[in-house]
Amino acid sequence: MSGTSRARIAYQPALDGVRALAVAAVLAFHGGVAALPGGFLGVDAFFVLSGFLITSLLLAEHRHTGRIDLVAFWGRRVRRLLPALLLVLLVVLLVSRKLMPGTELGALRWDELAALGYVANWRMANRDGDYFAATGSPSPLQHTWSLGIEEQFYLLWPLLLIALLAWAARRGAAAGPASRSRSPCWARPARRSPPRRCSARPRWTASTTAPTPGPSRSWSAPRSPCRWPGGARR
User: Fold this and answer.
1) Are 154 and 163 a contacting pair, CB within 8 Å?
2) For residue 22, which of 3, 43, 51, 4 has the smallest C-alpha distance?
């Protein structure tokens, strides 16, 4: 694999179907559909899918290159998520100045800074009580709490995964020779016998014991037709 290319994983269409179901469940939950009271679990489904895909990408990169480039990984995440987040923050700021009372603009600025720093989950949990509390004025950036959790995962999980891979490599290198020496005979690689080199060919010899006058021909094989490598006769 070239140094400029990066590891990829195979596209799995089934994951798009899971995403679609998760989106539908979340929309139904916020729309007040009584038949789907647990639709908020669609966010958890997104978290699971994100963790699976990111871990697969990191392991594929480690398998192909022997390392994980953290700077490149974090750079891809920033380029993927930051432009859309900046656009949302700008639109919310402009619209809120027209629609929200001035007494709430101070709290909104803190919400925007928390969203920009990907710690909105902590901000929303401590803003006028719990996130799920019905009291208090909801923030127009309340939905960014899930993005904060996702970005925190992107920041911490690759570090933990690199540490786990390094620990597994050291443990395997230290236990490899000892484990091979203690392995039972049926678990060891089979030793193949060296090939034999046979040079003898059937030959015709004259027999002098024939009852009839004149020699007769009979077939006989040599007593030592084959040699093992090294010259030992077999």
Assistant:
1) no
2) 43
- Name beta bridge partners: 226: 198
Question: Residue 104: how many CB atoms within 10 A of its CB?
Answer: 14
Mean pLDDT by 10 residues, the chain (234 residues): 58 85 87 82 88 92 91 93 94 90 83 93 76 60 91 95 92 67 43 53 50 50 50 50
Residue 110 and residue 123 in contact, taking contact as beta carbons nearer than 8 Å: yes
> 88 CB contacts (<8 Å, ≥6 apart)?
141, 144
Q: Please state, in angstroms and rounded to a whole number, the distance separating the CA atoms of residues 36 and 27.
A: 10
CA 41 to CA 31: how far, in whole Å?
A: 14
Predicted model pTM: 0.64
Secondary element (H or E) of residue 217: strand 216-220
Separation between Cα atoms, residue 12 and residue 181, nearest integer Å: 42
Question: Is the Cβ–Cβ distance between 122 and 114 less than 8 Å?
Answer: yes
∠ CA 82-88-90, nearest 5°, is 100
Task: Give buried/exposed letters for 166-181 (b at 16+ CB in 10 A, else e).
Answer: eeeeeeeeeeeeeeee
Written as six digits, the tokens of 176 are 């490899």
The candidate with the shortest Cα–Cα distance to 43, out of 176, 143, 135, is 143
